[in-house]
Amino acid sequence: PVSDHNHETGRGLPSLREVSGGHGQPLSGAQLGIWFAQKIDPSSSAYNIGEYLEIEGHIDSRLFELALRQVVAETDVLRLQFFEHNGEPRQVVNSDVAWSMSFFDLSDEIDPRAAAEAWMRADLTHAIDPTRGPLFGFALFKISTERFFWYARYHHIILDGYGMWLVARRLANIYSGLCRGVSTREGSFGSFAALLEEDSVYRASVGFSEDRQF
């Protein structure tokens, strides 16, 4: 059982960098709002979103990190890099992102949950610069032999609450497979370039004008 405590490659398609001749792609409508808000107040942590999942049962931390690495490797939005080109915000999907998963054994603490939550709350207060990756952070806390917390934090410019749930579900599927000795790419996410294309088509449509007027 898992209880959820909320705080609020391309397959067959080229990367954003390849599509745009090295200058990346424009941001989506939703991303632009977050980009400018963060630019106005660079020291704000308001656009950090995070959650932790409480996992009952033993977790193999090595396999867990392997599963996480597969999720990051196959999920375009987790490898987004933002920058400005000719005064405009742009984004590309990096082929690789350097990151590590923090692991904490708190099983000897008087109150392991309080210690874990204090660390998570502190992490959420750190302002994240969208132009410097990675735009996510992961930690695994051992509370006892049969209880673990998995913490995930993202910048809102790459994910929303529903996206966090999709990543967590994908992680669970990959980790479960690795525990059975099975590795698969089935169920991985589609291309971010395709999502941006859908956003661009919508914003140029009659439907967008009607929605805006409404």
Which features does this protein show?
214 residues, alpha+beta, five-stranded mixed beta sheet, three-stranded antiparallel beta sheet, 24% strand, 8 strands, 7 helices
Topology:
Elements: E1 2-7, H1 16-19, E2 25-26, H2 29-40, E3 48-56, H3 61-74, E4 80-85, E5 88-93, E6 102-105, H4 112-124, E7 136-144, E8 147-155, H5 161-179, H6 192-203, H7 206-213
Parallel strand pairs: 6-7
Antiparallel strand pairs: 1-3, 2-5, 3-8, 4-5, 7-8
Helix pairs in contact: 3-5
Summary, kept brief:
The protein has 214 residues and is an alpha+beta fold.
Element order, helices and strands?
EHEHEHEEEHEEHHH
Structural class: alpha+beta
N→C terminal distance:
43 Å
**Computed Rg:** 19 Å
Annotation, overall tally of beta strands: 8
From the spread of the alpha carbons, the general shape counts as globular
Summarize the biggest pleated sheet: 5 strands, mixed
> Major sheet: order of its strands?
1-3-8-7-6
Flag low-confidence runs.
Answer: 1-21
Number of helices: 7
Residue-averaged pLDDT, rounded?
88
Fraction of helical residues? 25-40%
Instruction: Tell me the β content.
Output: 15-25%
Descriptive account of the structure:
This protein is α+β, with helices and mostly antiparallel strands. The protein contains seven helices and eight strands. It has helices at residues 16-19, 29-40, 61-74, 112-124, 161-179, 192-203, 206-213, and strands at 2-7, 25-26, 48-56, 80-85, 88-93, 102-105, 136-144, 147-155. The strands form two sheets. A five-stranded mixed sheet has the order 1-3-8-7-6, with helices on one face. A three-stranded antiparallel sheet has the order 2-5-4. α4 links the parallel β6 and β7 (136-144). α3 (61-74) packs across α5. The longest helix has 19 residues, at 161-179. The model is unreliable at 1-21 (pLDDT under 50).
